[in-house]
Design brief:
heterodimer; A: about 475 residues; alpha/beta; Rossmann fold; 3 domains; seven-stranded mixed beta sheet; four-stranded antiparallel beta sheet; 18 helices; globular; B: about 60 residues; mainly alpha; about 0% strand
């Protein structure tokens, strides 16, 4: 199946590890018009819009045959075929932090606002058209651009922008919702009618909910909402007037977005975990960091998965050593901190809110539209970091050690660095809460033997002021 | 929470839940359209006044 098949203007699919976009007769004119745009060239140059290349004529013919055999698209229906720049790792809005959704919203609004000056409309304003290259958003859908009527004063995708960007950000900021709760179930975001039911009377009657939720909800229940006339394209008699109305609407969306920007100082139980020096000494941290750094320098992995990344100190070391890093943690607040750090320091880290014990499932039509996290990551990284994580999986999630090591071996193509936390460790005891007898047999020797079933154990180092060990494993 | 969201969506299948937002957008666009003419009027008055003042200033030799 293609990555995208809903758009009548074309199709996107993987072919021999490459991302191919077909443009059909429906999308032909709009695509050609977009190619002429100077504004889009600027977005391309700044890396905020995905690049594409023209395949040679031989390749085009082969791809046309492939499209006909695989998707039953006759060659005469295809007006253009392009190869896209490959974004290193696909991620979805239900794996992002609110900060990432916000930056994707800014990019989408920038595009819509800038392009309307060149009479190009953004017809699809959804976060599913944005991916992240490291911590930076990239708009990836070249078929979302259309030629605009200069007398049209309405941005038709504004309601979609509000549903898929603004309302999820608002319910996160003001009601504490996680993005995964919203986007895994509702790909099209939140309707004002649904958000209305969640609000207190005070919130319903005050900004920002009043204009984005309450008024649209009340208008939606009037007779007017069933009139088909509201969906017909409205035009005004003056292009300058249309431009003025549009620019004012964009200004007001920008003001709304500023207001609902996620707070940068959100704290959770995990945001200060590493900083909690009462449990660990400086020498413990220093030696762990030195071990990780020297290993990364020695093996030079290209792609690192940091499982349970917390505030990202080891992801940072990996990125500084030239790796593309995917940093995952189940706590959105800590992942948000990693995103801020990666963004500020311009590091190639893609932080995602993923719980490895319940990784993102496949989603969409036939469960094939959006791949599961494990489908995307297994065999795609050459180094896995699992530092101070294993006891959480063993105790809190009750995942057997063999399963944890088996999954680690499926994910990495080369090495893994795992911190072994023994049952007599104070943090282990804290989470096992009297169930210590269940883990009596978990000794360093047992851990070593288990590792050997899946890996070669290259190195073991004792971490100071604790009974913890750090293992370097290779497949 | 996901179940609540999915449950609520079912009731909205036969109505267009986005219609209220669209109507509000159309109403705002109409209001902004009037604002456009008010601005034009304001520009016209101020321009006239400015050009008259400039003319007066010129007559009494205040501008070069």
């Amino acid at each position: 199946m293609g990555i995208s098949f809903r758009d009548p203007a074309g199709k996107l699919f993987f072919h021999q590890e490459q991302v191919i976009r077909l443009v059909n007769q429906v999308g032909k004119d709009d695509f050609a018009y977009a190619l002429e745009s100077k504004k889009l060239s600027q977005f391309l140059e700044s890396g905020r819009l995905v690049k594409f290349y023209q395949p040679d004529s031989k390749e085009v013919e082969l791809l046309k045959v492939f499209a006909q055999n695989e998707f039953e698209i006759p060659p005469n229906q295809i007006s253009a075929i392009v190869k896209h720049e490959k974004i290193p790792f696909l991620s979805y809005p239900y794996e992002w932090t609110p900060e990432m959704l916000y930056s994707a919203a800014e990019l989408t609004l920038d595009l819509a606002e800038e392009l309307q000056k060149e009479m190009i409309g953004l017809k699809d304003a959804t976060p599913f058209n944005v991916l992240f290259r490291g911590a930076k958003p990239v708009f990836v859908d070249w078929l979302s651009f259309e030629k605009r009527n200069e007398f049209d004063p309405i941005w038709r995708s504004q309601a979609q922008f509000i549903r898929t960007f603004c309302l999820p950000l608002m319910v996160h900021k003001y009601l504490g919702f996680q993005l995964s709760w919203i986007f895994r179930v509702n790909r099209e975001g939140l309707e004002p009618e649904i958000v209305y039911q969640m609000l207190s009377l005070r919130k319903k009657l005050t900004p920002p909910f009043l204009s984005v939720v309450t008024i649209p909800k009340l208008l939606g229940s009037t007779k007017m909402s069933t009139e088909s006339a509201i969906y017909q394209k409205q035009t005004v008699n003056n292009a300058e007037k249309a431009q003025f109305i549009l620019s004012q609407q964009f200004k007001s969306l920008r003001r709304l977005l500023k207001k609902i920007k996620p707070k940068s100082d959100i704290k959770s139980n995990w945001t200060d975990y590493v900083g909690e020096k009462q449990h660990f000494t400086d020498s413990y941290f220093d030696q762990k960091q030195q071990f990780v750094e020297s290993t990364l320098k020695e093996f030079q992995p290209k792609n690192v998965l940091d499982i349970g990344c917390n505030t990202g100190s080891f992801s940072r070391i990996a990125a500084q050593n030239g790796a593309q890093v995917i940093a995952i943690d189940q706590d959105a607040a800590t992942v948000g901190k990693v995103w801020q750090m990666a963004n500020q320091e311009n590091l190639d880290i893609l932080p995602l809110v993923i719980d490895i014990s319940r990784p993102t499932p496949a989603n969409g039509w036939e469960n094939k539209e959006s791949a599961s996290f494990l489908e995307r990551v297994c065999g795609k990284v050459d180094c896995v970091l699992m530092l101070a994580v294993i006891h959480h999986l063993l105790v809190t999630e009750r995942v057997p050690l063999s399963k944890i090591l088996d999954l680690t071996a499926k994910i990495t193509t080369n090495i893994a660095i795992i911190e072994f936390v023994p049952p007599d460790d104070k943090m282990f005891k804290q989470i096992s809460r009297g169930r210590d007898h269940l883990f009596e047999n978990l000794t360093e020797e047992v851990f070593y033997q288990s590792c050997q079933k899946y890996f070669k154990v290259l190195k073991i180092e004792k971490l100071p002021d604790s009974n913890r060990r750090i293992f370097l494993l290779q497949k | 929470m996901s179940q609540i969201l999915a449950f609520n969506t079912i009731f909205l299948f036969y109505t267009d839940p986005g219609s209220g937002a669209l109507i509000f957008q159309l109403i705002l666009a109409t209001l902004l359209g009037s604002l456009f003419y008010l601005r034009k009027l304001k520009d016209l008055i101020f321009k006239k006044r400015t050009s008259k003042e400039e003319q007066n200033n010129r007559q009494i030799g205040l501008t070069k």
